[in-house]
Description:
The structure holds two protein chains of two kinds. Chain A is mainly β. Chain A folds into two domains: 51-177, no CATH class; 195-323, no CATH class. Chain A has helices at residues 53-64, 195-206, and strands at residues 15-18, 40-43, 68-72, 78-79, 97-100, 104-112, 125-132, 139-143, 156-161, 172-177, 210-214, 221-222, 238-242, 245-254, 266-273, 280-284, 297-302, 318-323. In chain A, the strands form five sheets. In chain A, strands 8-7-6-9-10 form a five-stranded antiparallel β-sheet, with no helix packed on it. The radius of gyration of chain A is 37 Å and the shape is elongated. Chain B starts with a strand and ends with a strand. A ten-stranded mixed β-sheet of chain B has the order 3-2-4-5-1-6-10-9-7-8, sandwiched between helices. Chain B is globular, with a radius of gyration of 19 Å. Helix content of chain B is 32%, strand content 19%. Chain B is built from eleven helices and ten strands. By secondary structure, chain B is α/β, with parallel strands linked by helices. Chains A and B meet through strand 2, strand 6, strand 7 and strand 8 of A and helix 5 and helix 6 of B.
Amino acid sequence: MPSEAPPETPPEAPSEVTAPPGDPAAEHVPGHVADHAVDHVLEFPGGYTRTTGPVIGRFLTELRDARIVGVRTADGRVLVPPLEYDPATGEDVTGEFAEVGPAGTVQSWAWVGDPRPEHPLDRPFAWALVRLDGADTALVHAVDAGDARAMRPGLRVRPRWRAERTGHITDIESFVPEVTRITSPVRTEYRLRPGRALTRFLEGVARGVLLGCRCDSCGKVYVPYRLSCPECGVAITEERELPDTGTVTTFAINNLPDPRAPQVPFVSAYILLDGADVPLIALVGDVPAHEVRQGMRVRAVWAPRQEWAPAPLSMSNITWFAPTGEPDAEL
Amino acid sequence: MREVAVVAFAQTRHSAVDEGLSEPELILPVIEEVRRASGLRTFGFTCSGSCDYLAGAPFSFVSALDAVGAWPPISESHVEMDAAWALYEAWVRLQHGDVDSALVYGFGKPSQGDLRQIMTLQLDPYYLAPLGLDHVSYAALQASARGADRAELDEIVRRSRAAGRANPYALDLPDPEGDAFAVAPLRPYDVAPPADGAAAVVLAAGDLARSVCERPAWIRGIAHCMDSHYLGMRDLARSASAAEAARAAGAGKAQVDVAELHVRFSHEEPILREALGLDGASAAATEINPSGGPLAADPVMATGLIRIGEAARRIIDGAAGRALGHAASGPCLQHNLVTVMEG
Lengths: 331, 343
């Protein structure tokens, strides 16, 4: 039957509460078409009393003790949840109960993005057919998986029991996925000094100058300033001030937040300062990320001088590099 | 088996909103219409199908008898099911041979309540109803178990809604669009739109059928079968009971010209086509749900009877030689009734 009509003599009389319309005066407003609708509630106070019979009663009793049992059929299959008869044959079941689970496997599932008040969880969840280990049939229940992407056929789940159990199918609040991963927090603290070459360079930034150097052996101009040439392996002695303009040689659009960038996405780029032979890595700003390109001409955007921090030394005096509007350079 | 035919069928113009008619007021015009069409004022047997939980009142179907006229007392019965099963009971009653005519009607006003809340009440009260498992949720479980193809479902809804727009009794619904989910994988448009409505059928036996109808829709086979109520104890991707009912009703004995299927969720159509033998090359000539089916209007508790009525109508008006009406009840196509009619 598609629905169960109340029995002719219900254990408790149903209460049918019919409330009057909210605003009776509204019906008398000229031109107003009253819809005469009233609210009506059909409720059986305290709910129906239902006997469980020996088979369902055993299942619910075990559930109250946080165990799940199935019943064995004449041909040896284990029905979970147990029924008094084998749905395949209509024969009585054997009366032999077998503990199953508590873990099981999701066979198929449907995702509820918008739970209803009647649902077992108040956040998005999955309905699932769960075959508990040792059972030959599947149990219908909710899976609290957090996200639909966590659901798949074959997913291993276990019951999350209610602390207060009464012998009811909802003694299992929901199933939850088995543990397959953990999160490992990593955080260590350091105290860094920049080294002599970088200190020299940052001292330059602190007074508004980009300081590089030239190798006496190969002639390459490096920025930031360094004490030796990485190609020749010889000491560098010649300092050289470089302009704050340059050309983007390559870049990356970053979609993961970084404490040093104002927002995502942000662009980090290799910028070949005019007169240098190796690029400097820096942020590019004041331009949509998708417009940044190789060959783009840029200039450092210095923070207002009154905001320049005297210490510690850092690159924070340069907010980022921004396009100059000049034609692109050949690389 | 005594020859019994559908000789008259009528339905309301179904409405997605409460138009302020009581149940007897909803039923009265369709009863009058089938009385007029058949020329019969009284019937040997009367049977109705409805659901008290839709009205929110016990024995609400008794008040619906006001539309029939039950005095002096008539021989009357009711099923708390879709009225397709009232038709089955009436067909069985006519097999007794002592009466020759039966009036069958069904009605529902889902606009008065929350159908997802109400449909939960039909479920197993120990294992399923306490979970708040609603009908869209369990249908989504079935769609998922079936692995239904999204493009196929979209096309089923598009075709059903287009047919519904051409059917004056169905709702006027646009082509499906949007990528929101009701309960994934089902989208809101995969769910039959509930409507207030009613339908009536007159069955007549043998010579009475021939005398009141030029081309009666003779019931050559009628059978219903049921799967286990518990969703985890059957293969949700298929409907074994629909296949068994179709076999018992002899659906596969000859070509089916028209099939009206009780498809309340779009994924049920491929499951039913497969179960009823309406799939594949040999069945290509079968027209499925030319009325638009439930996806174009679902006057709950009359919807299954309307499938039989719509199939019969196409025989009565000469459009089809052999037609199949299907009705379903219970969660995930649990219970299926197949009626095969011929001109």
